[in-house]
Amino acid sequence: MNMLRRALAKNLAHLGLMAAVVIWLPSVAKAQELEDWERVKAAGFLKVAVYNKLEPYSDQGKGLDVDIATALATRLGLKIQVRAFNEDETMSDDLRNMVWKGHYLAGPPADILMHAPIDDYVMKQEKQVLFFNPYTRDDIFVARNVKALPELTSLEPFMKEGNKIGAEAASLPSQLLAGADSGSYSANLVNFKTPGEAVEALLKGELVAVMATRAELEGALAKHPEAKGGFYVSRVPHNSLPPKGWVVGMATKKGNQVLAEKLTTAMNELRDSGELAKLFQKYGLTYVRP
């Protein structure tokens, strides 16, 4: 289960309550420029940390997050050096190891971490980290077999015997389906190692639906264009889910303000040109502006 989904499961009360985030980055002295942006520019590449097992955003150094980082670096005249890593026990561990301190095995921190949660509660807890550059908004959706479930406006159909619904084990959707509404859906819950495996089971007819993030569902279904039309992805409201989803952005060490400013400008250009939306479309995803 990736950092963002883990944060959702543990800090649900604090997620989904924020509007679009605007990060004010103060101007800094010449010495600071030499410490972050000038250092990166002199090296000629941007060190980018991305998660493994977070498809379609990233896995084994490939995916949408890598493409976005590459496009940003190109606009700054840089190449990228990708550091793919497995999540640690907590989100704070990941931020410490990849953003501000480093790890005795993995080495010094990267310049930026992709797919960081832009959330007020998390930001206040992480004093050594600068969160910036929100680039999309994600949410919990349900992919369903439209023949089995022509309509879905609530989770009530999953109380009915035989309406099996899949989810990634230990994720927020799995926890919700196991415990919400006095455990009404637990008998029909089937857990999988990844959302992708759950979608494969859906396509085989072993399930009638899968609950995961919108991007995970759209990305998995995009690998099977022959199934288009037989399956539909939609949001199913529930009081245990963040009402507006959550914002995804980037993180860097607290002192890297100039680098963050440069990347923010590049992201604005990427968004305004339409290139960002095209990168999402490449993976079959709906681009949702944060």
TrEMBL record:
InterPro entries: Solute-binding_3/MltF_N. Gene3D superfamilies: Periplasmic binding protein-like II (3.40.190.10). This is Transporter substrate-binding domain-containing protein. Keywords: Signal. Residues 45-287 form the Solute-binding protein family 3/N-terminal domain. PANTHER family: ARGININE-BINDING EXTRACELLULAR PROTEIN ARTP, MEMBRANE-BOUND LYTIC MUREIN TRANSGLYCOSYLASE F.
